[in-house]
Amino acid sequence: MSSAMDSQRLTEEEQLEIRERLSEIDKNGDGHIDLKELREALDLCGLKIAGYQSRLIEEEYKNSKKTKINGKLTYDEFEKLICDLRANDIANTFKTAVSKRENLQHLGGTSHASNAGTTHSVRLEEQLAFSDWINSNLQHDPDLGKLLPIDPEGKQLYEKVQNGILLCKIINHSCPDTIDERVINKGKLTLYTKLENLTLALNSASGIGCNVINIDAHSLEKGTPHLVLGLLWQIIRIGLFNQITLEHCPGLTTLLGEDEKIDDLMKLSPEAILLRWVNYHLERAGTHRRVTNFQSDITDSEVYTYLLKQIAPADADVNMDALSERDLHSRAEIMLQQAAKLKCRSFVTPQDVVNGVYKLNLAFVANLFNNHPRLEQTNGAIEGYETIEETREERTYRNWINSMGVSPHVNWLYSDLADGLIVFQLYDIIKPGVVSWTRVHPGAGKKSSIRSFQDPTIADGKVVIDLIDAIKPGAINYDLVKTGGTEDDNLANAKYAISMSRKAGARVYALPEDITEVKPKMIMTVFACLMALDYIPNMDSANRQ
User: Fold this and answer.
1) Final residue of a domain: which of 344, 371, 398?
2) Which of 12, 154, 327, 483 is 20 to 30 A (C-alpha) from 82?
3) For residues 477 and 147, what is the distance between their CA atoms, to the nearest angstrom?
4) In this protein, which residues make up the domain named Calponin-homology (CH) (predicted)?
């Protein structure tokens, strides 16, 4: 794969945005896009192609083995298609556009990718949320008296950032003392002094880990909306996530599972920690509900209602009246009224909750955590904490790596760089073309994971099935995989896993019951056989080279 193609790799936020949009097409929620809906799906994700091109792509997929399921694309396959289309410079032929969606403002412009022009989308809900956050958190700053409050409904947000002062203040709010405020130009400003402030803000944002590639002082001085919102989100997110650490909240150790140690916690992203935190309180609340994302799992406000009740102080008078309301929009409003009692009604409106807007719901939960974690305090020193506490030098390296625009975001150097993929990205960013991406082995993108050979999640057989598909891409027919979680479903999956292991070439001697009953020694032999299957052909190939 060429460096140019790799440069089209989707960022983590782009992947989340795409999956949010695809949910509008994937009505049955099976995680697949029909080929007949391909053109509509590409249109939703900002790639307009001609009808004949759509038909050519459909025919190519029908006549090849590119898809695991005939006639359908998984989300991962669809994302790869987008990367391929970008790499083939499709934007040079067809105007890039985003679909006409509610709450999106469309802004015309030009770019190097297309002389015909591009269309950037601006989420109005983000504009409202960020304006409200700025008003709430910086309203008492004496230097901002003439800039605040910002009218969330109009264009004021993009106008108020143009002199750079507001951006510098936001950075210092998220990461205190990043900027010596004596350096900020104030008073009567010329174009030159405004650009100095904006340059200061951009370099400081880069210093705390923001990716400011393709953003310059002149773009911000013009108040370019999509660039302003993108930068603001990065700064605000960093400020919210900075407090989700053992240093700020030692009680995070409460979220560790059996056989887990502190370094396992350090490997988790802030989003993953927040998911654990929410599920921890849901379990304590006695409800069966659990969350795996901050999109579809929270749209009915039920999870939030339980969470708010669980973390609220006894004298806060937080109630669960929202659960008695059937209308989802009204229920979300009642839930947010309870959040207001905790002074945490930030980032989301009822509509944002119902729509499952990822960024804003993530920020809402992070704000709840920062203000009301309600985790049991550990007694005494935390074992091993001294060895994993991030040093200033490590933080500097991490921030620099993130500022280069790598994906996914690096949260902990010693785990996130372990597979080498981030390092390869850095090589290719610093010296484009130096990495031969055909020789790089990316992850399979599977969600399954285990902590030990005694992990009860092994019982449903899915982790073995996913491993087979990772070793032999496309080998598994996921239509045959059961998701009910019953004993019969688990046994059927285990039988399928054993048979597919043998079909792939692994000499597996374990029985399906060994998987469903989680027999650790026999399960170890299954993984050992699959490891040998994967390793030996690769070793032979390496020796031939």
Assistant:
1) 371
2) 483
3) 58
4) 124-240, 268-373, 428-535
The domain of 527 spans 456-544
| CATH classification of the domain holding 211 | 1.10.418.10
Number of domains in the chain: 5
Q: Which residues pair with 118 in a beta bridge?
A: 96, 109
CA distance readout (Å), 117 to 41, 120, 153, 206: 21, 10, 27, 28
Q: Cβ distance 363 to 238 under 8 Å?
A: no
| Residue 132 and residue 22 in one domain | no
Element (H, E) at 142: none
Long-range CB contacts for residues 106-112, cutoff 8 Å, separation at least 24? 107/225, 107/226
What is the rounded CA–CA span in Å between residue 347 and residue 333?
13
Q: Give Cβ neighbours of residue 46 (< 8 Å, ≥ 6 apart).
A: 96, 97, 98, 99, 121
**pLDDT tens digits, residue range 419-466?**
899 999 999 999 999 999 888 877 766 777 888 898 888 999 999 999
| Interval 119-169: pLDDT, tens | 455 688 999 999 999 999 999 999 999 999 999 988 999 999 999 999 999
Contact present, 337 and 317 (Cβ < 8 Å): no
394 & 350 share domain: no
H helices of 63-181, where?
75-87, 124-138, 156-160, 165-174
What's the pTM value of the predicted model, to 2 decimals?
A: 0.70
